[in-house]
């Protein structure tokens, strides 16, 4: 027996495998991969006309281009907006800017935002060559009205009528605060969709829309779009868009740094070292704030945290810059400095004159004074509530949410300065959600809703309309903040008939927020993205914030139309 | 025959118990698919979408747990695994169908390879004690003792990156269409090299160890001495007399390992973003996709049971002592 003889035995077993592999190659030799032309010159780029987009949505996606389903590949990867277009393009990073007419060449609100009249743009065709008409726009609204499962924004549509080029949509309530949502409605081709048995479960494998792109190929890993003829605007410079799904943020980061990926939205811890420093000239990120606030939500039914003076004192000593630099890697969630909780500069236009420039930061001494004036006392370094009990707080967030856990540690250190023992705790994610909804928590980092006005954020935090007792699940106002004036001001803002009434309501909301601090804002949500300028330039940034840059926002189409080859 | 029927009956009972547990456990955990989906988007999805999603997923109809269980069993009897929430409205069977081949291909082939190589090396190490073959065990055990994800991350850090032949993630080159042609197959093989190498390196030690130890036991038997005395070649004694008998425990181990291919691979797939069923399961759990979780659990359970049944049968054939007469 020798080693060589076992080697020959191994070779014998290998032989059929080799034969099989060769014959396989021969059989397959005559066909070439339908996607191989896609590969072009590897990483894509300006010269080849390809832009590589990716999202961390899991390793595979299922063939589904239904633009109305939030779970479809078209929605999670964001490519639905390259095929289907909205009525108007709303720039949510400049919320006061009027919406850009898109498929509706004109739109007009009447009857205190309860009636919307739209004019269908001339000369727009679907990618199958059929013209887009007012009928298609009316159908797109009618579909939402008739199909509760597809009305993701729960729009209270009462009637839809089309006459000539005009469409009139009537709503049950004022849509002032929801204008952006209404105008972002995607227009579907009636002649194809009316033949679909159930639009809520159809996977629309051959999507037809008015957009500049059509679906070229779909694989569980990559969806490829290509430009079409006959787009109603100037054709985009990017000939082909490739949307790849990655299993998570780690995979995204390595694809970004290797150049395989040029546009994505993902959190990269230590982004400066892991991403931008790898190629400072081309690896860029832009994370503009949106009108929402992340912050420490407090269960206001819990003593002594029902005392606004305590919440205000806590807000005074929390270091938002530390949270931004350490928990958000210095870019992901912009710090909220304004005392009103509104992110700046995006929210500047909404902040009342009395709070303009007022920052939510103070010194420990003024926080302590605020507390002792409100009846709190100090026993050595420990803060005691007016009944003499030491003030302690448990702050809970899911174990896997690293950024929030870091934030809680920072807040815990900050609160120690004013004698509050605040303990960060880790929880199971599902149990945590249930606890938040039921009010079974003392404090937790959580985001707020956002929208085109500060309404969504304040409504989420302060609305008494959906107030639930502790123990019953709430979908709003998790902190159980009970303030009739705030509830009234929110209703006034949403239904106000003129600008001055809205201003007055908003001023009231800000005053209540500042005085009561129902939630302690720390950072803002974002509309950001990581992108590369190596092959394509013309991205929005601070100097030209023409659109939110996230590839899954409707404005992604506007971004793609702005991009030009770098060489 | 009676023995076989007994075994089959036992396996059927186990399958029913597993299906029942699969059904109840996800529902007893807190959380629901709609909030999980909303959480995944962390404020990016319209907050009003809760209502439409509930209707869309059919969760607005209130059914008791018992009714759900009965309708689940009814569906299963028709081979219907339901609709996945995460990839709504894709049927669970389709999701499993696109991911399972990747897992079976990568881990199945690697398991067979590890078994073959490890057993061969174990035979050598057990037969030629005191030679260089003694080094096989400590070296392979060293690699096996490194936690798998760590080994894989180190491999990614050092062996992949820009300019490297080995890709760090995915199952094939982005842009290619899964299709039976050389370009795609080449790309798939290329993408599977590093994951399979790391699995091989970390799992081969077990096979070497069990085979070597059995060889050591077997070589002390009288019939080996007799075989030598008959003047048979060393190779023939090693393979046909010693290894053949030493192989028995490894065969049942191999049956177990094959059964666990589907379920025990999520670490590989998570680290390498491999589009297999393990990664799909991790994500299904994350978003409370009950039908998908149940479907994958079912596939895992059935494959473990099937592999065990096969190992039972193989043992029955290989070892006469397991057969009872009469």
From TrEMBL, chain A:
<feature type="signal peptide">
    <location>
        <begin position="1"/>
        <end position="20"/>
    </location>
</feature>
<dbReference type="InterPro" id="IPR000914">
    <property type="entry name" value="SBP_5_dom"/>
</dbReference>
<dbReference type="InterPro" id="IPR039424">
    <property type="entry name" value="SBP_5"/>
</dbReference>
<dbReference type="Pfam" id="PF00496">
    <property type="entry name" value="SBP_bac_5"/>
</dbReference>
<protein>
    <submittedName>
        <fullName>ABC transporter substrate-binding protein</fullName>
    </submittedName>
</protein>
<feature type="domain" description="Solute-binding protein family 5">
    <location>
        <begin position="100"/>
        <end position="461"/>
    </location>
</feature>
<keyword id="KW-0732">Signal</keyword>
TrEMBL record, chain B:
<feature type="transmembrane region" description="Helical">
    <location>
        <begin position="7"/>
        <end position="25"/>
    </location>
</feature>
<dbReference type="InterPro" id="IPR000515">
    <property type="entry name" value="MetI-like"/>
</dbReference>
<keyword id="KW-0812">Transmembrane</keyword>
<dbReference type="Pfam" id="PF00528">
    <property type="entry name" value="BPD_transp_1"/>
</dbReference>
<keyword id="KW-0813">Transport</keyword>
<protein>
    <submittedName>
        <fullName>ABC transporter permease</fullName>
    </submittedName>
</protein>
<keyword id="KW-1133">Transmembrane helix</keyword>
<dbReference type="InterPro" id="IPR035906">
    <property type="entry name" value="MetI-like_sf"/>
</dbReference>
<feature type="transmembrane region" description="Helical">
    <location>
        <begin position="102"/>
        <end position="127"/>
    </location>
</feature>
<feature type="domain" description="ABC transmembrane type-1">
    <location>
        <begin position="100"/>
        <end position="311"/>
    </location>
</feature>
<feature type="transmembrane region" description="Helical">
    <location>
        <begin position="246"/>
        <end position="272"/>
    </location>
</feature>
<keyword id="KW-0472">Membrane</keyword>
<feature type="transmembrane region" description="Helical">
    <location>
        <begin position="188"/>
        <end position="208"/>
    </location>
</feature>
<feature type="transmembrane region" description="Helical">
    <location>
        <begin position="292"/>
        <end position="318"/>
    </location>
</feature>
<comment type="similarity">
    <text>Belongs to the binding-protein-dependent transport system permease family.</text>
</comment>
